[in-house]
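Researcher: Can you fold this with magnesium ion in place?
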Amino acid sequence: MIQSESMKITQNAIEVVSFDVEGTLVTTDFSYAIWFEMIPQRYAERWDLSFEEATRKIKWEYDSLGDQQIDWYDVQYWFTRFDLGKADIAMEGLQPRVKYYPETKSVLKKLDGVCKLSVASGSPRPFLKHLLRDTAHHFSSIFSSTSDFQQVKTTEFYKNMCRQLLVEPEQVVHVGDHLQFDCLEPASIGIRAYYLDREGKSGDPAAVRDLAQFAKIINGL
Ligand SMILES: [Mg+2]
């Protein structure tokens, strides 16, 4: 009895703390600059249009493909489609637009070593390369659902992630700012998922307001 109880505790101990990236560790500034500044600007130059005309056209193109299609997430796909050249060189120029939330780096530093830190993001790897440039050293694993599994963050994605991390879902805590992709999907397989609602708009009493509050919960587990 005692043995089985202690086994249960060991089995449910937190092994991995998993983070979403955009809206959680970093703001969406970098992505916005790519989709709504750089691409329309280059499109305007390439096709001799005003910035406004180019913006209208590319928004129409984004919407007509839709975010359920995996190509939609692929910057090079759009660069090729619009004949704009190499996306990676252009993205490098936007590195200064990557912006961390004020508490992110100190929280990562604090939790690093306490448990294994991991990333579960829907952003493609070419984005993560920039978004995590200053913090990648804290993470033992980085998963991109779109690049690694060609899907958004579904339960299947989280199952695969746990399999690769060699842990049970109950040994993982995840935090992110998307109710479906960061809470409902992971929670449905037993991951302890925390909804990050920075603006407090959801009214959800279980939501955390920033990563410092999340870290306090982790330390108390
Ligand atoms: Mg997010």
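Model: Folded with magnesium ion in place. The two ends are 23 Å apart (CA to CA).
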